[in-house]
Structures are given as structure tokens and as C-alpha cells.
Amino acid sequence: MRRRRRQPLKNMMETNEKHTEKGAESTFVVLLSTYNGERFLRTQIDSILAQEGVGVQIVARDDGSQDATQDILNDYQQRGLLTWEQGKENLGPARSFMELLKNAPRGDYYAFADQDDFWMKDKLCSALQHTKSAMATEEKPFLYFCQTQLTDQQLQPMPSVIIHPKLTFGEALVYQFIGGCTMVMNNALRDIVCRYHPTFLPMHDVWIYDIAQAVGARICFDPTPHILYRQHGDNTIGQGQGRLHAWRERLDRVVLNREHRRSRMANELKQGFADLMPSENRDLLESFIRGKSSLRARLKLLKDPRFEPADETTKKLFKINVILNSY
């Protein structure tokens, strides 16, 4: 019978101390959510432990795996290389990651890790360098993310979706492009994110990026990939599956959009963070929300350049979305 060792998250700093590099300038708390991930989990954990120039603490939460995932986590924990906790219930990836973030030990920075990717050795070091280049301070919320390199199951490169985001709040309300597996945030942003728990939460990464934009955080995009984003057919969110698949995804997400994701997330942002937003962002958010109940307001949205995303296809589909009042 599989042994399931649980350790309180509040004690994880001490257990992971063994792997924190002496003299490292900054400590990164890496938050790893797992679920039936035995195929690629060891490769991913090893790539995280191989990060150069920074201190690393891995904190994992298992969402109820039925394969050998928990045995693998036990093995690494017994060697003092990570700490993990078995979730009391299956939360799904979004809420599992948010649970990790809420209960994480204090570090200098926080990064999300999927169970099936591969991190290049400079992934966290590159984030730290961009933090310094942006002259980010501990008091100012900061978010970093980078381009991904798509690969097949054997980590052989595939054509990737190249993004050129405008990094504006209006674009964030429309265009959902950020990969949580590339994100790094500081304590200031983590504290802001964790102060409010949304009822509607499709994915953690888009939610956190929207918060960062809403409150005026310093945001840095690195166009150089530092992660191999493995595609294997079982990804929760995947790319590189062909144009037909991509257009079906867009049709469902942007045009049909039965969940009305964008407007629901906008309302969650207002509920949780309106008091922290600059006045121009509050006004922008109100315009976005008002369109749901006013044809005149929707017509203004169609013409408002502040909501134009960098991606031309998303721009066109969002206009259809607004006309149908399904955003």
C-alpha cells in the first residue's frame, strides 16, 4: 500500500533548507501541483533542482493521484529535495495552484511549475535578472513571464506560438495568453493575490496576470524561452495541435463563450481589487462591465482602442464576442 506522507506547509521552509544554495542572492519557492503525473514528473523535478544561481525550494500539492505520483514525491521528500502535501480533495489545477500560493512558505519570489515540462537551467536566474533590470522593489508588486518553446513528448522542439503582448490592462481583459508555467512573482504581488478568493476561477495564471495589470504592478515579458512546454495529448491546456483544433478552441472560448468568462472575471476583479486600482483602470473596468447590460456601451467597446489586443485574430473574434454579448 502506498505510503502518503503529509507535512504541514508551515514547516516546509526548514525541510527544503538543504537544497537552498549557500550565498544565493534570492530564494524561489517553486509551487508544483500534481495529478497522475508519473510519466514526466521526475524529469521536471530534476530540471527545477538543476536551476543555477538561485536558491530553490519546491513545495508540491497532489490533487488525488491514483498512479505512482505520490511515491515519486515521497522519494524526493525523503531525500530532502522537496516537501509535499496530499490535498484533502481534488480541486483541479487552478484552485490547487492557488491553494499552494496561499499556504506557501515565505520566499523572495514564487514560481508555478507544471508536472510535465522541462525547465532550462537559467529559467529562474533569467527572471531574477529581469527583476533587477526593471528595478523592481520589494514593496512594488512585480510579475515576470516568458515565451515558451513547444516540444513533443521527447522534448523535441515544435513550432511555437510566438506572442508579442502590449502589456496593458485593456488587453488583459480581452486576450488570455499568459502561461502560468513561466510566471514569477514577488511577495508584494503574492500578498495582493491571496487577499481575495474568487468564486469564478477558470485558470490561475490568467487571473493573476489580470490582477497584476489591474493594480498597476510592474510587469516584465521575456521573449526568450526558458522552458520546454511538453505537448503529449493529456495537457490541461495545450498548444501546437494544428490550426483546425486552434480555431475550434477559439470558437468555443471567444465566440460561443458559454461561460461569459471575460465579464465574470472582470466582476471578480472589481469585487476583490477595485480599491487598489489606479483610477484609469477602474474606469476601464467599469466600461468593460457596463457593456453587458447596455447596447450603447457595447458599441463603445467595439471602437475603444484601449481594449485592442496584440493578436489580430483575437481582436476580430472579440468584436464578434461583443456583438453577441457573450464576452
Please describe what this structure looks like.
The chain has 327 residues and is α/β, with parallel strands linked by helices. 40% of the residues lie in helices and 14% in strands. The chain folds into 2 domains: 9-230, Spore Coat Polysaccharide Biosynthesis Protein SpsA, Chain A (Alpha-Beta Complex), CATH 3.90.550.10; 243-323, no CATH class. The strands form 2 sheets. It has a 7-stranded mixed sheet, sandwiched between helices. A 3-stranded mixed sheet has the order 5-10-7. α3 (69-78) links the parallel β2 (55-62) and β3.
Write the layout of secondary structure elements.
Blueprint lengths: L11 H4 L11 E8 L6 H9 L5 E8 L6 H10 L4 E4 L5 H12 L5 E5 L4 E2 L3 H11 L8 E5 L2 E3 L17 H6 L9 E3 H7 L10 H11 L3 E5 L4 E4 L12 H14 L4 H13 L5 H12 L4 H9 L8 H12 L4
Parallel strand pairs: 1-2, 1-4, 2-3, 6-9, 7-10
Antiparallel strand pairs: 4-8, 5-10, 6-8
Helix pairs in contact: 9-13, 10-11
> Which architecture of the largest domain does the CATH hierarchy give at level 2?
Alpha-Beta Complex
What is the tally of helical segments? 13
CATH class of the largest domain: Alpha Beta
Number of domains: 2
What is the CATH topology assignment of the largest domain?
Spore Coat Polysaccharide Biosynthesis Protein SpsA, Chain A
Key structural traits:
disordered N terminus, alpha/beta, globular, 3-stranded mixed β-sheet, Spore Coat Polysaccharide Biosynthesis Protein SpsA, Chain A, 13 helices, 10 strands, 327 residues
